[in-house]
Here is the input.
Amino acid sequence: MNHTTLIVYQSKTGFTERYAQQIARGTGARLLPLAKASPAALAGCDTVLFGSRAHAGRLDGWAKGKRLLAAASAKGARCAVFATGATPAAERATVEQFWAQSLTAEEQAALPHFYLQSGLCYEKMSLLDRLMMKSLAVMLRGKQDKTPEEAAMQRMIAGSFDNSGEEYALPVIEWIRAGE
Ligand SMILES: Cc1cc2nc3c(=O)[nH]c(=O)nc-3n(C[C@H](O)[C@H](O)[C@H](O)COP(=O)(O)O)c2cc1C
Here is the structure.
């Protein structure tokens, strides 16, 4: 029997979409933008992934994503989540904090969740996102006695960068293949 894997994703500046495409190439998964996704569109899938960006410390689009995964999992699908973010994957504590703010303890226990480091793309960012980054930059610039993390963040958000890499998606690809 053919194994059907679906990746429901949301991407504003392209990082999550590129990772979703790479995972799809590696596994034969189908891709579906979150905006077009409904529980009916997930019917019959054996494996469903939700992928989106970290946004101000939380997984963007998760309110809808969690409903979709709950519906898929109720029908017996294996489900997982991946997030992309500008934070380097090596900053484990920040990444853990992001997951703790995004998923409940039950969700963290039930759902494999993968963090894929990406970057920032000011050129493709919405005006609102640019304003949010600007106010973060202004806040950090004005802050006396910055912690090393805050100083690093200030340097990190100064311009566009791309720290994504194919290797970061490999654990997701392996997880999908392990269930086939
Ligand atoms: C307003 C804003 C807030 C962000 N907050 C975070 C964050 O809390 N943690 C993080 O690691 N990255 C953060 N990022 C970076 C994005 O998560 C990163 O660029 C992501 O890969 C974008 O995905 P996309 O290109 O698929 O939209 C933020 C970006 C913007 C514009």
User: Anything to note?
Assistant: The two ends are 10 Å apart (CA to CA). The chain has two domains: 5-121+161-178, 122-159. The domain at 5-121+161-178 is CATH 3.40.50.360 (Rossmann fold). Residues 86 and 119 are 4 Å apart (CA to CA).
